[in-house]
Amino acid sequence: MANKVFAIITDIDREQALEVGLVYPMNCAKNKWLDEVKVIFFGPSEKLAAFDTQIQEKIKEMKGYGMDILACKWCSDRMGITPQLEAQGITVVYVGPIISQLIKDGWAQLTF
User: Fold this and answer.
1) End-to-end Cα separation, the chain, in angstroms
2) Entry pTM
3) Per-residue confidence (pLDDT) for residue 8, from 0 to 100
4) Structural domains of the chain sorted by starting position, each given as residue range(s) with its CATH number in brackets
5) What gap in Å lies between CA 96 and CA 87, rounded to an integer?
6) Can you give the pLDDT at residue 95?
7) Euclidean distance between CA atoms 111 and 11, whole angstroms
8) pLDDT-flagged residues of the chain (< 70)
9) How confident is the model at residue 63, as a pLDDT?
């Protein structure tokens, strides 16, 4: 049984990310429902993390609960937003190998 979860946020729809995609992972970390929680912004959603102030506030809150917040470097470099993501305290890395390892290690995955 998985006691760790990672959520991949891909949707650029602000409400989907803010009201659905980030709520469960944050509550998992806040309430200690699971041992570890990560959020990965991947693709179009990275623009939200880079520029949307409400998403940025939620990122700060999640980091306060000890969550790892990552974004895909390949995507962010192509969109020219890597510096903006890093300014939010997001770890910008090539996430393909990380996602693969998390799956191999038995982490539960959510995609929004």
Assistant:
1) 22
2) 0.95
3) 97
4) 4-111 (3.40.1260.10)
5) 22
6) 98
7) 9
8) 1
9) 95
Q: Closest Cα to residue 86, out of 44, 41, 54, 43?
A: 41
Cβ-contact 7, 95 below 8 angstroms? no
Asked if 38 and 6 count as a contact pair (C-beta separation under 8 A), the reply is yes
Cα distance between residue 8 and residue 104, in whole Å: 16
Residue 65: both structure tokens together:
């609960």
Take residue 44 and report the two structure tokens written for it: 């179009």
Identify residue 29 by its one-letter amino acid code.
A
Q: What's the one-letter identity of residue 93?
A: V
Q: Which residues pair with 2 in a beta bridge?
A: none
Which token pair is 1?
A: 């049984």
Return the structure tokens found at 66: 């000890």
Amino acid at position 69, single letter: I
